[in-house]
Amino acid sequence: MMTDAELTILSLLSEGARHGYELQQLIDERGLREWLTIGFSSIYYLLNRLERQKLLSSELRPEGRGPAQKLFSITEAGRGVLQTAVSDLLRQPRALGSGFELGLANMMVLQPRQVYQTLHHHHHDLQQRLNAITKAYERNQSEPGTAPHIAALYTHSLALMQAELGWLTTFLENWKELYPGVENAPAEEPEAHSAVTRINPRSAQSEPAKMIQRLKRIPPTTGE
Predict the structure, then answer these.
(1) String of b and e for 94-106 (b: at least 16 CB within 10 Å)?
(2) Theoretical Cys-Cys bridge with 56: which of 33, 50, 145, 212, CB 3.0 to 4.6 Å?
């Protein structure tokens, strides 16, 4: 199974042949850093791996007075793999029963105060991410000619985060009514549950975040 970074590279190269540093620039220009974590050295590692898999081809091109640089192009096999992968991502609804949903299903192993505080942190972290994505989208929108697939990437993410924030706000208010005072007292950490309560609250949303990312971060291909 291909990684998100590999699919992104294939997608960018489906638009035309490019050097590795050009791919890095495109990832920044299109705001894909909000969803994709990939270093400069990783770009070349992935390019070489995709080339070994016959999904890319390359040729050396002189660059002015400097040394020749590799120019990478997607192969027909690579285009076919990319189109199949993107179609699968767009067709499949987000998976349930794992990650955050699994935490909800088992939250009663925690004390009411722990549930409230963990989800309160979740709410805070998600709000910060929503603010960051909103600012990035506004910057992207200020540039002329924003591509429809880039707008879709942002608006889909924003809609999901706004919906989850709304759910969390309602849940937390209901939880306070069910367990008065949970927002004011320190969380209890019984020994039997100490391993659970030390988990970073951010981890509660890691899997849903991955589900969201898989659906959005690949720009559309050209051709059939």
Answers:
(1) eeeeebbeebeee
(2) 50
Handedness of CA 58, 146, 128, 92 (dihedral sign): negative
Question: How many whole angstroms separate alpha carbon 132 and alpha carbon 123?
Answer: 14
The CATH class of 4-91 is mainly alpha
- The full set of domain ranges for the chain reads 4-91, 100-216
How far is it, in rounded angstroms, from Cα 27 to Cα 90? Answer: 21
Contact (CB, 8 A) for 70 and 19: yes
Spell out the residues 6+ positions from residue 24 whose beta carbon is closer than 8 angstroms to its own. 40, 43
Residue 221: its pLDDT value, please?
Answer: 43
Say how far apart CA 31 and CA 210 lie, in whole Å: 17
> In the 8-state DSSP scheme, what is residue 30?
T
Nearest to 96 by CA among 104, 85, 108: 104
